[in-house]
Specification:
The structure is a single chain. The chain is mostly helical and 488 residues long. It is a multi-pass membrane protein. This is MFS transporter.
Length: 488
């Protein structure tokens, strides 16, 4: 039987703010570090080979632990898991700022990734179940969407400002007081929920298989960027990670209390939402990464100037996610918003594929970034609402972890594929005699078109979304009709 919505005497919107600030802090940390990598290398004497592990040491545990952390939230309480993750994230941020060498920073970043996964795994589930009516539910999910997308867009700007005005250490130190405040506010505002209990779902073999498989898959993807997709290490670790994940699927089909019930995927809404999320994020990661390179390596922007260039897209995402999207979803339903947003994102990628080597910000980047912000601001709340309303409240933690896992794997795979396209095209143009900037831009053009292709696939998959996701649907967070049919 589905659990009732948790009650609290305090404003549920204050709870949403606390959860979304926590989510934004974690997302910011994934992006803010990139801008500071040159300063980190100079300050700690990192070798070029090990510098990439300042990023990867965070990404690997983060992507691998989300599903397990989400299920733990269902079992022992999502509030408990969220606060434990924020505490670990803040403590490890302090260790990162105090690091005096390569090993200590990489080890601390690994702990940060663990804490980030634990904290963020349940946030979407808690936000989506905070309100019983669809209008406020859509507003809450919109706030979560802004925290995730806005954090990614603001990260390069904040990283440039903090690194230039203070030092690289402060990109980590800044998390400590914010995290401490979140723990205090979380204890006061986030309602305590009684979990199902460990006896209801302690699938330890499944947890071991999926955690090992996901971490190994993420490691293989990020490592292939430097070792190559045809390297012996990639050819061994890639199939091994898939074998572990295949074992996890078999385990879920036979376990008495599966970590991820396979009946979830009989829900058309949940399955479509996760596939759309995967393809959309695969493209969006390409936008953030290659558009930054275009601004810096082709238009010769500095790190701070490049960061400021993303302010308009963050502003548009905020305006749409926090206000417009909820009203439109309530009025027209999630499906039209999903289609309209994906069309805008695809249009933005096509526009970027015409960026010029001697281009200007106002002509070659700003229009596309505004369309991207509007499209993502419409699509993200729609796709998250589409998936989360198809899941019982008692299992919202594992569904939230699944959404976050889909996002992380989609981003990692998408960026790896797009980077391979860029490298091949850039090398081809360089061999043909093109100068460096034109060769790079040719590679970025291919990446933007391929990213647009990802979004078009998401659009085609979205056609399968149930038409029942109308303003009248989902008034309470409970299984959708297709989920109920599958479960029976």
């Amino acid at each position: 039987m589905d659990q009732p919505a948790p009650r609290t005497n305090r404003s549920p919107w204050l709870t949403v703010i606390v959860l979304c600030v926590g989510q934004m802090m974690i997302v910011l940390d994934q992006n803010i570090v990139n801008v500071a990598l040159p300063a980190v290398q100079q300050g700690l004497g990192f070798s070029a080979e090990n510098l990439v592990w300042v990023v990867n040491a965070y990404v690997v545990p983060f992507g691998g632990l989300l599903l397990l952390a989400g299920r733990l939230g269902d079992l022992i309480g999502r509030r408990t898991v969220f606060l434990a993750g924020i505490s670990l994230f803040s403590a490890s941020s302090l260790l990162c700022g105090l690091a005096s060498g390569e090993a200590t920073l990489i080890g601390s970043r690994f702990l940060q990734g663990v804490g980030g996964a634990i904290a963020s795994a349940c946030v979407l589930g808690m936000v989506a179940t905070m309100f019983p009516d669809q209008r406020r539910q859509a507003q809450a999910i919109g706030a979560y969407s802004f925290a995730s997308a806005g954090g990614g867009a603001v990260g390069p700007l904040l990283g440039g400002v903090v690194t230039e005005l203070l030092s690289w250490n402060w990109i980590f130190f800044i998390n400590v007081p914010i995290g401490a405040l979140l723990v205090v506010m979380g204890l006061r505002t986030v309602p305590r929920e009684q979990g199902e209990g460990m006896s209801k779902g302690t699938d330890f073999p499944g947890a071991l298989l999926v955690t090992a498989g996901m971490m190994l898959l993420v490691y293989t993807i990020v490592d292939a960027g430097s070792t190559g997709w045809g390297s012996a290490r990639t050819l061994v670790l890639g199939p091994l990670s898939l074998l572990l994940l295949g074992g996890f699927v078999l385990r879920q089909a036979t376990a008495a209390h599966p970590l991820l019930p396979l009946r979830f995927f009989r829900s058309r809404s949940l399955t479509v939402a996760n596939i759309v999320q995967f393809m959309m994020i695969a493209g969006m990661f390409g936008f953030l990464f290659f558009s930054t390179l275009y601004l810096q390596r082709v238009l010769a922007y500095g790190s701070l100037q490049a960061g400021l260039s993303f302010v308009p897209i963050a502003t548009v995402i905020a305006a749409v996610s926090l206000g417009l999207s909820a009203r439109l979803i309530t009025r027209f339903g999630r499906r039209p918003m999903l289609f309209g947003g994906l069309v805008l994102i695809a249009t933005a990628f096509v526009t970027l594929s015409f960026a010029r080597v001697d281009g200007t910000y106002a002509v070659d980047f700003l229009p596309a970034s505004l369309a991207m912000g509007l499209g993502f601001g419409l699509t993200a709340p729609a796709v998250m609402g589409l998936g989360m309303t198809a899941v019982p409240r008692a299992e919202s933690g594992v569904a939230s972890g699944l959404f976050n896992t889909t996002q992380q794997i989609g981003g990692a795979i998408g960026l790896a594929v797009l980077n391979a396209f860029v490298t091949a095209r850039t090398n081809s143009l360089t061999a043909a005699g093109e100068h460096e900037a034109q060769a790079l831009l040719g590679g970025y053009h291919v990446a933007f078109l391929a990213a647009g292709g990802f979004v078009l696939i998401a659009l085609l998959v979205g056609v399968a979304a149930p038409r029942s996701t109308s303003p009248a649907a989902g008034q309470r967070f409970s299984p959708s009709p297709d989920h109920e049919t599958a479960a029976s």
